[in-house]
Amino acid sequence: MQKVVVVTGVSRGLGLELCRQYLSEEAKVYGCCRFPEQSQQLLELKRSAGYQFELVPLDITQPGMIHNLQYVIEEPIDILINNAGIYGPSGLSYGEVAVDPWMEVFRVNTVAPMMVTQALIEKVADSQDKKIILMSSKMGSMGDNQKGGSYIYRSAKAALNAVGKSLSIDLAGKGISVGVLHPGWVQTDMGGANALIDTETSIRGIRKVIEQLSLKNSGQFIN
Ligand SMILES: NC(=O)c1ccc[n+]([C@@H]2O[C@H](COP(=O)([O-])OP(=O)(O)OC[C@H]3O[C@@H](n4cnc5c(N)ncnc54)[C@H](OP(=O)(O)O)[C@@H]3O)[C@@H](O)[C@H]2O)c1
Q1: Ligand 1 atom at minimum distance from 16 CA
Q2: How far is the CA of 173 from the centre of ligand 1 (A)?
Q3: How far is CA 99 from CA 13, 102, 105, 137, in A?
Q4: pLDDT > 70: what percent of the chain?
Q5: Which residues lie with the beta carbon below 6 Å from any ligand 1 atom?
Q6: What is the share, in percent, of the chain residues with pLDDT greater than 90?
Q7: Ordered domains of the chain (ranges, CATH)
Q8: Of 16, 44, 74, 216, whose CB is crowded by the most CB atoms within 10 A?
Q9: How many CB atoms lie within 10 A of CB 42?
Q10: So what's the pLDDT on residue 91?
Q11: Mutate which of 90, 182, 190, 222 to test ligand 1's pocket (most atoms within 8 Å of Cβ)?
């Protein structure tokens, strides 16, 4: 049966490549992003994929848009990938951290993935694969933090990891497994040009990890 994959943040970077690779596997893909008409690469992919690829306007900070997803996406969802994320203001030192940008990053990186998941949970539960992915980062790890700084991004991803762990426990009864993944340091707008790997390599690895995700390793952070 054709898999249904839903991805957030598909205008560029890892989200766009997730769509490209799942489309090449013949999945039906719903790509969600704020301004689909502004990404030329996304529109090109849509032109070549046709009905297999649905573009869904979604700002993950807007509760009404998240609520509507359950009506826009009609089929059961095999894989829900919460990929959209922001870094927030970069280069802030101790003493420069402010409340508003921190709240904004928390809203996008931590709160929104939970809200999207809550809105679509029954559709995931009705599917064959029943998988939910949270795109996290090693920057959220305590053990990996050797450099300090990055208070905003690090804390938002650390909190996302906690969300993933609780989801894995709460959703096990529905047969849903949850993957909390680090995609590598990847050449995107966020990762920058000096990052270690390209999006194609990262997403090839991510797809393998998602394939191997099960109730046995649900909730684990996987690099
Ligand atoms: N690149 C890395 O090295 C790296 C490492 C670890 C983790 N990650 C994580 O991987 C994920 C993807 O990162 P990336 O490198 O592909 O970043 P990116 O190139 O900056 O892309 C981020 C995506 O998120 C979308 N987005 C941001 N705010 C949004 C909102 N309010 N509503 C909907 N979409 C929104 C952006 O859409 P717009 O075009 O509308 O802004 C864009 O499509 C993120 O969660 C990031 O934290 C990346």
Answers
A1: 43
A2: 31
A3: 28, 5, 10, 22
A4: 100
A5: 8-15, 33-35, 58-61, 83-86, 108, 135, 137, 182-183, 185-186, 188-191, 195
A6: 97
A7: 4-222 (3.40.50.720)
A8: 16
A9: 23
A10: 85
A11: 190
